[in-house]
Amino acid sequence: MFLFRAGFAIAILTLVASCSTNNAANSVQNETQTTQENNPVAVENTQLNDSQTASSSKTQPIAVENTQSNNSQIIASAKPKSDSLQDTLIIPGKRVGAVTSKTTRTDLAQIFGESNLKDDTILQAEGTVSVPATIVNSDTKRSFVVFWQDETRQKISYLKGFGSEWKTPEGIGFGTSLKELRQKLGEFKLTGLGWDYGGLINLEGTKLSQYKGKISLTVAAEENISGKFPKEYTAVSGDQELSSTNANFESLNIQVYQVTVTFDE
Questions:
Q1: Angle at 262 between CA 257 and CA 265, to 5 degrees
Q2: Considering the entire predicted model, what is its pTM?
Q3: In principle, which of 143, 193, 214, 261 could form an S-S bond with 163, CB 3.0–4.6 Å?
Q4: Which CB contacts under 8 angstroms, 24+ apart, belong to 128-133?
Q5: Which letter does DSSP use for residue 126 in this model?
């Protein structure tokens, strides 16, 4: 009988302990649910922190925008200024488009774009002197060549080799005919054709004498025309000074082929 009672007591204790354990687990679960329901801010903060962590791993749009802006500025600095490209006016002694006596090689790149420039060394003075030069807008109607005082390319000596779109306020430039020159200058003197200083116009005493020393205009006969009119060509060739009204010029199709500009200091 004693053994039966002892066994029964042990069974009762085991059952009580099991129920206590289950109740404790249920209590913890219920307490957790209650905490979440009673503290939505805590749950929301946890979710917000998770979202911030995920967002921080992505590329920031502001940083991208700033980078794109910086890249755009760099690209823009390498592009020519459109307004300057449209200006093809020569003011003898003052400016050639946007180019003045203060313009440097660096300035040329900002005005016309680096891709439109080509540095070179060109023979001048009857092929006896090598002069540093920069060719602008090569092989176009807006081309011209800047000749520098030295290799630093900081100071312009003179400009020449202008394309046909470059004109003075009077409309004089590459391709201007002898007839047009007479209309704009009046009668003038020029050197004979066919040598290093041939076809050079003397502006002294003309309607544009104020340009003397600031612009040089050189004319030439049509290419290969000397074979068609050898007598006339020979008559106006060589080291001599001639009048623009010389009748032998009429059949030679005389035009301006070289314009040289210098700046006032």
A1: 175
A2: 0.69
A3: 143
A4: 131/157
A5: T
